């Protein structure tokens, strides 16, 4: 019998299951290796080139999650399929985090096993570069960040440079592009990952509270301040603080921030003495700080202090190579969460997703996949996409349209390209800002 080239390692403490799996695998011409414990599995991995790992989760001594973690670290390109008798949301989440590409619940049918194996092998083929050697630069996942585009690779390269020092980082990008994900990666991939990471949405905390929330306050600083209290900065000591929507910080907060950046110390609200803090600041915004500086609502000196290292997270429409790996990630994530199985996607739907412009970026893509997984049976078809998406695509194909529609679409495109900067857009379009507004209002 001619063996397929794929070597599959199966790990289960139940010999009967191992035998059964092996019989199935043999009937499809896969070559199988059996291990009854994680220890045995690790030994086989060391000596053999394995193409797919199928592991049980609950095993005595060391469980399947430990093995999955080990494999993710030491054999990053190796696809992992897990088999469990006790599915739980928590298990699924842990599995997704460690990059498991497939999930089977006992008891499963032979057909289910076959398609899970095929999906896992196929997903990994797409995910890794042709040579199966793991390489940080080529790999499509970096922590939780998925992406195959050059733009994402550039972002990852900067993260690599800053993760182990405490340089201030400024992250710019449209809503839903993954700014917070990047901030977390900077913290968690680096050497300070065991210290706290504190995320503060400056836009969500009322302006009059932000100052005391961030820097703390002393007893008597204001009505209701009946004890001394630490703020987020003190809580993040030794680690990182993520200041999201930094454009929403008041001038009072800004001047305190400047002090932290310059002197590495904070003064609690109402206090006279400062205290040292050792915190890396990561700030983010999707608003135009340049504009705010001109209007004097953002301090220029703070801006320069914050932007020591700048990371620009490009909108999804400028890095369409990321769409397929992102779709696959979300398919798996929600497939497991709602269906307890990996849901497939029809090729024509994938083609549409690749053509769409994604104004809401990755968040929008994730929502659409989440919804589609809920709506579909086993395969996501056209009908599972929301109407506006189908409608938009009809427009972009060869349907003929009135001039004003085209004009409007083009104006919107230029606005997007300029980050909604009407002055710039007016310059490009050679019309004035008022006309832009009028045409959009029409
Ligand atoms: N490269 C990526 N890989 C995987 N998931 C991603 C990626 N980028 C973004 N996401 C997911 O998309 C969602 C939005 O990302 P995130 O919250 O980081 O965006 P954001 O830029 O901070 O948006 P906002 O400006 O609206 O706060 C999150 O659920 C995040 O996990
Ligand atoms: Mg955010």
TrEMBL record:
The modification 4-aspartylphosphate is found at residue 56. Residues 145-374 form the Sigma-54 factor interaction domain. The keyword ATP-binding applies. GO terms for molecular function: ATP binding; sequence-specific DNA binding. The lineage of its organism: Bacteria, Pseudomonadati, Bacteroidota, Flavobacteriia, Flavobacteriales. One of its GO terms (biological process) is phosphorelay signal transduction system. This is Sigma-54-dependent Fis family transcriptional regulator. The keyword Transcription regulation applies. SMART domains: AAA, REC. Residues 7-121 form the Response regulatory domain. Signal peptide: none annotated. It holds the Pfam family HTH_8. Keywords: ATP-binding, DNA-binding, Nucleotide-binding, Phosphoprotein, Transcription, Transcription regulation. Gene3D superfamilies: 1.10.8.60, 3.40.50.2300, Homeodomain-like, P-loop containing nucleotide triphosphate hydrolases. PANTHER family: SIGMA L-DEPENDENT TRANSCRIPTIONAL REGULATOR YPLP-RELATED, TRANSCRIPTIONAL REGULATORY PROTEIN. PROSITE patterns: RESPONSE_REGULATORY, SIGMA54_INTERACT_1, SIGMA54_INTERACT_2, SIGMA54_INTERACT_3, SIGMA54_INTERACT_4.
